[in-house]
Design goal:
Elements (H helix, E strand, L loop, with lengths): L9 E6 L2 E8 L5 E6 L11 H8 L3 E6 L18 H9 L10 H14 L5 E6 L1 H12 L4 E7 L13 H8 L6 H16 L4 H17 L3 H13 L14 E6 L7 H10 L4 E5 L11 H12 L4
Helix pairs in contact: 2-8, 3-4, 6-7
Length: 303
C-alpha cells in the first residue's frame, strides 16, 4: 500500500502488519467516536456532512477503510474465493471457510485505536460494520464507551430472504472495470434504500465515482463477504455486553428485516431499539437528524 495516493486529510496507520486508511473530523481532544462501515462499503459510506454533523455534537469522529477495501491493505496473499458459492452454502446451512473473520476485522478497528493513542471510544457500526462493532464490544469490552449497531444483526440468519431486487444485486456478475463498478454501486444503493429518496439518488453517482477513484477490489469485496458468512452467531455471547447500547433499524430494510434488529436489541441487556419508518438498508439524508440525536443521547454521560 506504499504507493496509494491519499487526500490531504487522510492518513495510513500501521495495524498488525496492515495499512489502515483513516480520517478524523472534529477537535483532537473531543470524545472519540469510531465509525465502522459495512460490507463492500468504503469509509465514505459515512458521508462527509454526516461526520461533520456528529463532530459538531462534541465528538472526534474517526472513519476508516476496513481491510480489503478503499485505500487500506488488500489481503491478496490468500487463495481465490467464490462469494456467490459461499452465499449458496450459507443459505443451505453448510459451513463457510474464509481467509479471515469479523473478529479479525474488529481487531483492525482496535488496532487503529491503539495507533491513534485512544484508550476507549464510542463505537458505531452499520450493517456488517455493526457486526464488527459487536465483535469489538465482545472481544475488547474495556475499549468501548458505548455501542451503536445500525441495520445489523447478531449473525443469525433471517427467516425472510432479501427482496428480489436485492438478490439480483447480490447474484449479478462482478463488475469488470471502474465504469461497471460505478453503475453497479448506483443500482445497489437504490435497491438498498428501498423508498423514494430523490435527493439521495442525486448523490449516488458522485459517491460511486469517488469510491472508484479511491480504489476497489472485487476479490477484496468477496473476501469480506466470506468473513461475514463464516463468522456465525453472536446472539448468546451478546448477553455479556455491558456498554450502553443503541440499536437502530429501518422498518423497511430489504436486506436485514426488522426482526434482525429486534433480535439484536433483545440479545444485549438494556439496549435501546429505535425503528425508523421508511428506512431501508441505508442512511438517507432524512434519517440523519434522528440518527445523530440518538447517538448523542446514548453517549451522554458516558465516561
Amino acid at each position: 500500500m506504499a504507493n496509494v495516493r491519499l487526500d490531504a486529510d487522510e492518513a495510513l496507520a500501521s495495524v498488525g502488519g496492515l495499512e489502515i486508511c483513516w480520517q478524523a473530523f472534529g477537535p483532537s481532544d473531543a470524545a472519540p467516536l469510531l465509525l465502522i462501515a459495512g460490507l463492500n462499503a468504503q469509509m465514505i459510506f459515512w458521508e462527509d456532512d454526516f461526520c461533520r454533523a456528529l463532530a459538531e455534537r462534541g465528538f472526534r469522529v474517526i472513519r476508516f477503510d476496513n481491510r480489503d477495501i478503499g485505500k487500506s491493505s488488500r489481503i491478496d496473499w490468500t487463495p481465490p474465493v467464490d462469494a456467490r458459492k459461499a452465499l449458496s452454502e450459507r443459505a443451505s446451512g453448510e459451513a463457510v471457510a474464509a481467509p479471515y473473520l469479523l473478529k479479525d476485522m474488529a481487531g483492525d478497528a482496535v488496532g487503529l485505536l491503539d495507533a491513534l493513542g485512544i484508550a476507549r471510544a464510542h463505537i458505531v457500526g452499520a450493517s456488517m460494520g455493526g457486526r464488527i462493532a459487536q465483535e469489538v464490544a465482545l472481544g475488547w469490552p474495556e475499549r468501548v464507551r458505548s455501542l451503536t449497531s445500525i441495520m445489523s444483526s447478531t449473525g443469525e440468519r433471517s427467516a425472510t430472504p432479501p427482496s428480489a431486487a436485492v438478490m439480483e444485486i447480490f447474484t449479478a456478475p462482478p463488475p469488470a472495470n471502474a465504469d461497471e463498478y460505478i453503475e453497479a454501486n448506483i443500482r445497489a444503493w437504490r435497491a438498498f434504500r428501498g423508498a423514494d429518496y430523490p435527493e439521495d439518488e442525486a448523490r449516488d453517482r458522485p459517491r460511486a465515482i469517488r469510491a472508484a477513484a479511491r480504489g476497489f477490489s472485487i476479490e477484496g469485496e468477496q473476501r469480506q463477504s466470506l468473513a461475514n458468512y463464516a463468522s456465525g452467531s453472536r446472539r448468546t455471547a451478546l448477553a455479556r455486553v455491558a456498554a450502553p447500547t443503541l440499536v437502530i433499524h429501518g422498518a423497511d430494510d430489504p436486506i436485514a428485516p426488522l426482526a434482525l434488529g429486534e433480535g439484536t436489541a433483545a440479545a444485549i441487556p438494556g439496549a435501546r431499539l429505535v425503528v425508523l419508518d421508511r428506512m431501508g438498508h441505508a442512511l438517507p439524508l432524512a434519517t440523519w437528524p434522528r440518527v445523530i440525536d440518538e447517538i448523542a443521547a446514548i453517549t451522554r454521560g458516558v465516561r
